[in-house]
Amino acid sequence: MNKTITVVVSDYPALRKQVEEALLLGRREIEKAKVHTYWRAGKLIAEHISQYGSRSEHYGNQVTRKLAEDLEVSASVLWRCLRFAQSFEIVAGRQLSLPENLSWAHYRELITVPDKETRIALMKRAEKANWTSEELAQKIRQEVRDFSNGEAAGPRIAKLFPKKGTLYTYRLVAPESAHKDEDADRLWIDLGFETRIREYLRLCGACVLFFGR
User: Where are the alpha helices (DSSP H) in 8-132?
Assistant: First the structure.
């Protein structure tokens, strides 16, 4: 049976508020440090690849995987760090002046935006409106990805619909050779999908249709 904890001191509400603010501030500082750390790591990788990348077109992939193995860090995280530093090189170059109210989850969404001006504009809007990372992701889907997909697709092309005949009505096909005795008085019945059966049909002047089930 759970017992209700009763605090009789009058200054408990103030204590609770102070602890809550301390924890919140701590989380913000941790997230801020995470953003700065990932940008710095990505910047170091980018500079290294820029210096030695001419050796091989796959060098960037190789060095990132090697770092992931040696440091026991996910390669996908290092790739995001690299893209983060590359995507915000100009902004971060000014003493890393990235919005402090945006978390790493925000920047993970922003680095998927290919256009630099659009990316920076979305970052500023997210900062001003205090969007969550989910709200930012939704904006990117609506304003960037859907637009780019439609633009890449070009003009809409009308769908093609197959012509359909009458149900249980089949086409008669002339025999491959009229010189074979077995084909002299027979026709092929075309069932579609390159499936044909041979049926004994007396050739006559009238139009012949075959109905089946």
Answer: 12-52, 59-71, 75-87, 89-93, 104-110, 116-129
Phi, psi at 189, each rounded to 5°: -105, 115
Task: Give the Cα separation of 119 and 102 in Å (integer).
Answer: 14
- The residues of the chain scoring below 70 in pLDDT are 1-8, 90-96, 146-213
Predicted pLDDT at 118: 94
**Contact of 11 with 19, CB cutoff 8 Å:** no
- The pairing of strands 186-190 and 196-200 is antiparallel
3-state SS, 112-165, equals CCCCHHHHHHHHHHHHHHCCCHHHHHHHHHHHHHHHHHHHHHCCCCCCCCCCCC
Ordered by start, the domain boundaries in the chain are 12-153, 162-213
CATH of 12-153, one of 1.10.10, 3.40.50, 3.30.70, 1.10.3470: 1.10.10
